[in-house]
Structures are given as C-alpha cells and as structure tokens.
Amino acid sequence: MTLTLGREINALFAIASREIMRLIKSPGAMITNMIFPMFFLGIMGGSLSQNLGGNIGYNFLQFVMVGMIVFNMFMGATSGMTSLIAERDLNLTQELFVSPISRYTIILGKMIGTSFASLTSLIGVLLIALLMQIPLGGMQIVRLLLVIPVFCLVGASLGILFIGLVQDSKVAQMGALLICMPQMFLAGTIIPISNSTGIIAFLAKIMPLTYLTDLARGFFYWGKPEYHSVVIYNPAINIIASIAFFAFFTVMGTILFTRNERNK
Amino acid sequence: MNNVIQVDHLIKQYKKSQKAAVDDISFNVREGEFFAFLGPNGAGKTTTISILTTLLSKTNGTVSIAGYDLDKEAKKIRYNTGIIFQNPSLDLELTAEENIRLHVSIYGTYRFRPFYGMMPKAYKQRIEELAEIVGLQESLFKNLKTFSGGMKRKLEIIRSLMHNPKILFLDEPTQGLDAASRHSLWEYLNRVRTEENITIFLTTHYLEEAEGADRICIINNGKIAMSGTPGQLKERLIQKYMYVDATDQNTLKTELCRLGAAFMETGQGLKVAYKDKTPQKLLSGLDIPLTKLEIHQPSIEEAYLDLIKEGSVLS
C-alpha cells in the first residue's frame, strides 16, 4: 500500500515537473503568459477605472488587480489542461497512458504542472500593478498568494472536464477561451456583480470563477473597511464551493477523458 | 516454454464501424520468443497491439499478458511490458535523458530528481549501458529537436527497456526509417534481445522483417490468415508450378495422370504443381514432346502478396 502510494507520488511529481521543465525551455510561452494580463489590467482595467470607477468607495484598480490575478491563474490552468488533447494528437499521451500508474495521478500531475506554468502570468499582473502604482497592500497580497493554488487547481479541473467532453484539439483550444471569457465578465473579475439580477445573477452563481474571485477578495480585503463592499459571500461558502467544483470536475473529467481514450 | 501472451477469440469493433477491426483471433506467444504479427495496412495489427498494451478496450475475448488478466490486472501488465509505438511518443521540448528520466520516474523504477546529477548511480549506469548498445551515448544530453528519425527510435528502445520489461511490443518500429537505419535498428534490437532476454512482439508489414522472427502470424482483414515458423509458412505459401502443353494435349494429360501429377487446364496450357526442388523428375517421366514449358517459382514475397490479395477478395 505504502509502496504503491510512494510510486504514485513519485509519478505525480515527475509529470508535474515535466510541465515546469517544458515551460522553462520555452521563453516565448513565458513572455506571452506575462503579456496577456498586462493588456487586461493595464488597458481594460485602466480605462474602466478612469471612466466608471470614480465614486464606488474603494480603489477600483486594486479591485480589478485581484480579479485579474484569479482569472489569469484560472484560465492559464484551464488552457494548460486542454493541451492534453493536442499532446494526444502528437502521440505524447500514449507514453503516459501505458504507464502503470493511476489515471488520476496522470491528470493531477498535469494539473499541478500547468498550475505552476500559469504562475508566470502572476508576474505580469504584479509588474503592471507596480507600473500603474496600484497598492499591493503588503500582507494583503501575501494572503492572496497563499490561496493561489486553489484558483489554479479549480481552473485545471474545469479544463479536464472540458476535454473529457471534447475530442478535437482545435475545438479544445478555442473552447478554453469560450468557457473562461464569459466568466471573466459575469463572475466579478473586473466588473462588480453585487447588483446583478435575473439570468445574469443565476449564471454568476453557477460559475466557479465567481466563488474563486470572491474567495480571493475575502482574503485580500480581510479586516479592511471596504471588505463588505467588495466581498459577496462568506469565505467558508467560497471554500466549500471551490472544493465541490474541483472534486466534481476532476472525477467526471478523468472518467470521461480516460473512457474516451480507451473506448473507441 | 510458458506462454507469456495468450489471446483467445479477441474481437474489436470500433464504435462507428460496421465491421470488426479484429475479428475473433486467437494466438499465443512463448517466453523469450521473437513473434511477428505480419499484415498489410489496415489489417488490424495496431488495433491488436493497442489492446494488448491496455491502450484500447476490447469488444470481446480474453487476453492474458505475462500471466495477468487484461481485464483485472491491467496495471501489472503495464509494469511488465515496454512499448515502442508506431509514431514516436517523445517530448521534443526535452533532452533525450530528460525523456528517459521521466519514464523511469513514472514507472517507479527510480525516484524522480529534477537534475541528472541527482539521479542514483544505478540509473546512470543503466542508461549508459543501453545508450552504448544502441550507440546513442554522445547524444543523451542533446535536445530532441536535433535528432533524426533513427536516433529517436534508438532513444525509444532505451526508454522502453529502462524498467526491465518482460515483453517488448514494437508497433511497426521501422516506419519512416531509411534502409540503413532499419538495418541498424534490427541489429540493436537483436543485441538487446539477447542481452536482456526478453520476449519481442513485433507488428510489421515488411515481410523481410518478419522473416527474422521465431514465429509469424499473418493477419488480414482482422482475421488470422496463417501462422507458423518462417520455414513452415514458406512451405505452405509457396506453390511451385509450371505450364506445359503438347500438340496432343490428351496424351499429355494421360501421362501426367500416370505420374500422379495434379494439373489444371488454363488458357496458357496445363498448370502442373510440383513439390521437388526442380520439376526435372516429373519432366523426365513425360514421353510426349512438349510445345510449351514455363517454370514458376514465386518468391515468399510474391506468395505473401497473393495470400493478402486473395484474402481481400474473399472478404
């Protein structure tokens, strides 16, 4: 039992490390990961702040910065997982699927690896935040960094569920954008959603990014006067929702993906 | 000798297909044997090897690999097998050694370490030993983007043997390689086979590759067309015959009947099969002067192509 568990952990570590090794060897991908959030936070966030964020009672750019950190981790991990389809087309996954380890270990290893890879976009957000003189808040940002793995893992789990349903690599790549971008607008990443009603409010409630963004803001604004203006749910609700989404997406996604690979 | 692979009534029908890709096949492979699964493209070779290596589910039948049941003990089968896929499954972003290191870590042969220098001595010795056999010791730390097709295949051989498998599956391993690379790859595989004492299961559509095997199984249209040693197959496949004719064909037929020779009337004369090395004995028994004599001794390749063609027509 211990030997088996040790083997699985060793394999998990190796699969995750492979993603990191690949990232280190691809400076182009690292630079792209860093540039992407600069556009959103710098251009979109800056424009919204100047035109709409004047009298809301808190620093709007800081609000957007927290949302962008969550979104970039989430989307980076989702996109990273969809690369499994492209890797299958390149015959890279065969080697993994004939190995004597659990399919969950393969998927979890890939999730952890892509999560680390998406961390590079965090550097982009922090750089642009410094350039735009957005206050990082000292311990506030440290608290936020502590929960970053949660955003990555939930994003990665959504990615595996998606590729469990989609077989084509082009659809998978496009689909990652399609399932993430609407969440950016509806889940409160850059636009406050406390006044959302009807279908918009309903959609926000079923999106994992809503709970992740709110969890991030709960940690970031903890003990601050603007806490009640920016945080919607109790952090416990956000944590439970995040764990539930992660567990459901991972189990369903792994079952569907491995079943599709074997049952042709 | 024990059977390390036992396949009984294996059937595979793909979801969107009306016809079975593998249609009720049975065969066995003995321990230490070099077994060739020969057939044309689309015959069902890759489907079979994918099922045996646990990559693909089967529709029906039973399979046992290294003493383990495919349905119940797939993980144990994976521990005991090594695979070289039809298309290289290497990570081109990494070096040759990094590809191997990830493989052994996933198989649990050695603990994963982020740097080669941190890997155990046994790992380093094993990798050097195998790299020397296939002549890749100079390129172990080079990026795979600089590797030729032959070098990638050699690397896959090293990788597939690192966890000491009992059975090595090779799915058309020489596909895309030039004649020189094919030749050297077989030299290395034979050397590895002798030194590592493993069973080799090869799928190929090259008859000359299969001829080196201990036993050959010919698959066509998802069914086993013939199996046996290369010598047995040659004997069964090659039918030697000649065309003979005479002004008085009836007398010729009577003489052939007297000599016990089987013949068939064709537009080219009488087609007479013979079993001896040459038809000299048969010809010397004929008294009637011949107006036609054409001797045919097809090569094994021609005979194999005839069998495949015949199979496709029959199906």
From TrEMBL, chain A:
<protein>
    <recommendedName>
        <fullName>Transport permease protein</fullName>
    </recommendedName>
</protein>
<feature type="transmembrane region" description="Helical">
    <location>
        <begin position="60"/>
        <end position="86"/>
    </location>
</feature>
<feature type="transmembrane region" description="Helical">
    <location>
        <begin position="185"/>
        <end position="212"/>
    </location>
</feature>
<dbReference type="Pfam" id="PF01061">
    <property type="entry name" value="ABC2_membrane"/>
</dbReference>
<dbReference type="InterPro" id="IPR051784">
    <property type="entry name" value="Nod_factor_ABC_transporter"/>
</dbReference>
<dbReference type="GO" id="GO:0140359">
    <property type="term" value="F:ABC-type transporter activity"/>
</dbReference>
<feature type="transmembrane region" description="Helical">
    <location>
        <begin position="28"/>
        <end position="48"/>
    </location>
</feature>
<feature type="domain" description="ABC transmembrane type-2">
    <location>
        <begin position="28"/>
        <end position="260"/>
    </location>
</feature>
<keyword id="KW-1133">Transmembrane helix</keyword>
<feature type="transmembrane region" description="Helical">
    <location>
        <begin position="107"/>
        <end position="132"/>
    </location>
</feature>
<feature type="transmembrane region" description="Helical">
    <location>
        <begin position="232"/>
        <end position="257"/>
    </location>
</feature>
<keyword id="KW-1003">Cell membrane</keyword>
<dbReference type="GO" id="GO:0043190">
    <property type="term" value="C:ATP-binding cassette (ABC) transporter complex"/>
</dbReference>
<keyword id="KW-0812">Transmembrane</keyword>
<comment type="similarity">
    <text>Belongs to the ABC-2 integral membrane protein family.</text>
</comment>
<dbReference type="InterPro" id="IPR000412">
    <property type="entry name" value="ABC_2_transport"/>
</dbReference>
<feature type="transmembrane region" description="Helical">
    <location>
        <begin position="144"/>
        <end position="165"/>
    </location>
</feature>
<dbReference type="InterPro" id="IPR047817">
    <property type="entry name" value="ABC2_TM_bact-type"/>
</dbReference>
<keyword id="KW-0813">Transport</keyword>
<keyword id="KW-0472">Membrane</keyword>
<dbReference type="InterPro" id="IPR013525">
    <property type="entry name" value="ABC2_TM"/>
</dbReference>
TrEMBL record, chain B:
<dbReference type="InterPro" id="IPR017871">
    <property type="entry name" value="ABC_transporter-like_CS"/>
</dbReference>
<dbReference type="Pfam" id="PF00005">
    <property type="entry name" value="ABC_tran"/>
</dbReference>
<keyword id="KW-0813">Transport</keyword>
<dbReference type="InterPro" id="IPR003593">
    <property type="entry name" value="AAA+_ATPase"/>
</dbReference>
<dbReference type="InterPro" id="IPR003439">
    <property type="entry name" value="ABC_transporter-like_ATP-bd"/>
</dbReference>
<feature type="domain" description="ABC transporter">
    <location>
        <begin position="5"/>
        <end position="246"/>
    </location>
</feature>
<keyword id="KW-0547">Nucleotide-binding</keyword>
<keyword id="KW-0067">ATP-binding</keyword>
<dbReference type="GO" id="GO:0005524">
    <property type="term" value="F:ATP binding"/>
</dbReference>
<dbReference type="InterPro" id="IPR027417">
    <property type="entry name" value="P-loop_NTPase"/>
</dbReference>
<dbReference type="InterPro" id="IPR050763">
    <property type="entry name" value="ABC_transporter_ATP-binding"/>
</dbReference>
<dbReference type="GO" id="GO:0016887">
    <property type="term" value="F:ATP hydrolysis activity"/>
</dbReference>
<comment type="similarity">
    <text>Belongs to the ABC transporter superfamily.</text>
</comment>
<protein>
    <submittedName>
        <fullName>ABC transporter ATP-binding protein</fullName>
    </submittedName>
</protein>
